[in-house]
């Protein structure tokens, strides 16, 4: 594991795919917190949520960096390097 993120070049200026978890909204599920993919803008629920759609999105696409999509939070996470960005 590295102490720095090696994927910063993959961050894009994205538009959120939804104002809630895109996948939970389709199925009527609930979520705890939201995360936004900084590669494509997919909004998914966090790992404390039942469906863990943000992490599922990472495994399906390989998009490495998310940010919190919660008001007042300003952090990013790299799944690959397992570091706060």
From TrEMBL:
SMART domains named among the record's database cross-references: ZnF_UBP
Domain UBP-type: 3-85
InterPro entries in UniProt: Znf_RING/FYVE/PHD, Znf_UBP
GO-annotated molecular function: zinc ion binding
Identification of the protein by name: Isopeptidase T
Origin organism lineage: Bacteria, Pseudomonadati, Thermomicrobiota, Thermomicrobia, Thermomicrobiales
